What we know:
The structure is a single chain. By secondary structure, the chain is of the alpha/beta class. It has one domain (8-242): Rossmann fold (3-Layer(aba) Sandwich). Helices cover 35% and strands 18% of the residues.
Amino acid sequence: xxxxPPKRRLLIFDFDETLISxxxxxxxxxxxxxxxxxxxxxxxxxxxxxxxxxxxxxxRAMGYTSTELRRLVAAIPPVPSIVDFIKHLYESCDPKYxxxxxxxxxxxxxxxxxxxxxxxxxxxxxxxxxxxxxSSDGIRVEPLQNTxxxxxxxxxxxxxxxxxxxxxxxxxxVNYERVIFVAxxxxxxxxxxxxxxxxxxxxRKGKDLERKIRCNRQKCKVRPLVLLWSSGHDLLTLLExxxxxxxxxxx
Length: 251
């Protein structure tokens, strides 16, 4: 009997409210008194980079150090059982899962949180806004991209990142039989429009991604199977069932 190489699947995660249980920006904003809180961007396409840097500036003025803020975010509890879910798929032999993050958060927070939860080795790549600690002990964030995507912020088009990543992997001979995208937010909608019929979108139940798909599924021809989840246990159970039959959508 001849055995071929293991099948490969790409598993993509968002970060805020997908891996971590809350939105990290809201958590930091709520450290500020009401009169010092900057106004939220009115639209997702206005982006969060300037907003987040303003929050960092206010927190620094109030005496918060970058070390304190990083420890705070690293300690945010994960979405229930999501850590076990990631470790389970990372250790899978056939199919083999390549796991990445595409997020509008920033690299410092994501890497700190992964390290705190012993997940760093599980992720092949992280695509997020670059960030660094400045000499005055503050944190600054820069845009990952400069994009005109009509469905996302100016600093990040998740569809573009996914397309380029798939092309790069194909260039070294890696073709994924399925792409699985686990996310929650409105700006996670854009990449679903290029996913194939055999791919899977796992939209967190009750969040903006679910609502956007419900409103636009027929009009925009969202092709992949859509599953709704609340925990890592849900994800594992749903995927084990769905991967045997990917022609049925729950939305």
